[in-house]
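Putative cytosol aminopeptidase family protein, Octadecabacter arcticus 238. Tokens?
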Amino acid sequence: MSPKFAPPSATAIMLVTVTTNDLRAALANLPNPSADWLRATGFTASIGEMAALPNADGSIQAVYVGLGAKGQTRVRFGVAAAAAKLPAGTYVLDTILAGLALEEAALGLLLSLYQFDRYKAAPAQDLAFVAPAGIDAVRIEALAAGECLTRDLINTPAADMGPDELADAAQTLATQHGATMSIIQGDDLLAQNFPLIHTVGRASPRKPRLIDMSWGQSGPKLTLVGKGVCFDTGGLNLKPGASMGLMKKDMGGAATVLGLAHMIMALKVPLQLRVLIPAVENSVDGSAFRPGDVLNSRKGLTVEINNTDAEGRLVLADALALADEGKPDHIISIATLTGAARVAVGPDIAPFFTTDDAMACALPQAAAEVADPVWQMPFHDPYEAMIEPQIADLDNAPSGGFAGAITAALFLRRFVTDTPYTHFDIYGWNPTAAPARPKGGVGMGARAILAALPEVLGL
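Tokens:
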């Protein structure tokens, strides 16, 4: 279940936020016993620090939460950093925060309640948060629900989240919002000209498929394409065991796209949305595709296979070609595509490439406003030669090891010719627990995209 705000309550405990700059003044405004108590606890208002202020009967009068120094940006969701330390109860923010900072605090508190409890009994939820005055609670709950959907899908092991189950999750979302959905699977992919999706997934007993969801009858057209590789062995270029351990998250692009689609549909954003997810498992048997094979694509471009572990760009290529045929106003692909992207920016930033100047300007600004960091990477045209082998139109895995994220993005761009295009190369996993972001699957870039859409699409 996605976390929601608790109903207003006269007994809700105040969460009082204070910066280190304002701590002395805040203490001066309290009755002496209360101020003395906070001083005695050693409360300094550092980020995420909390101190409970008791009533005479021992109950909690208020909880003070530190915001750190004014303007400090080292920690996202700073208020939520205190959530894990809070005693049981229902809380409401009493804060100097306003506007976007208040929205971030409220969203962070909701996301701090997330638990992935599919495989074990979850502890009873003994914390609840009332929506603070001044926010759009419905919007914040929609953002939290989309993010929690993404987390649940990524966190689910591949045994229970294969192409079938990913399609079921998409169908559940479509039904929830009145969207339409179709699926092309198995050998029908060949019959309907999706050869790359079929080839990557054919070695698995779990049939490859293309999920196609549509919602909305008017407004600009947006197509989202998510990489749905539900498990990646690497194929015949088999990954070592240590590299295979997290490959349940290789459908993180699809999970993020579905989370973003929920946000768009729940908030009734006035656009026409299409979601395309090539869902496959990259497995090994006698029918697996081989290094050295030359494959055809939906667009007619041929691809030489130099590494079967560079399969994500192959399934995305056919889906992007279909997206481009629909002539939307913008195409966005999201994928856990390259380790090179993680080397470049680490696990906390969503790198993106775009052919659209409006998106290039809008995304970083929106990301800063909604605490969802992104960073633009270049479609560097001189590197095009690196993806052009001798015997085919394209190379799926250029040798040399340089600019891996860029060459992968350039490969994908070859399949979008008529439409403004943005590509995200995300990690989709939080390696260490952080405020509002437990260790495990995580959405990246979705809230930034949502916030940028009005400017990009003229909504």
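The first strand starts at residue 13 and ends at 18.
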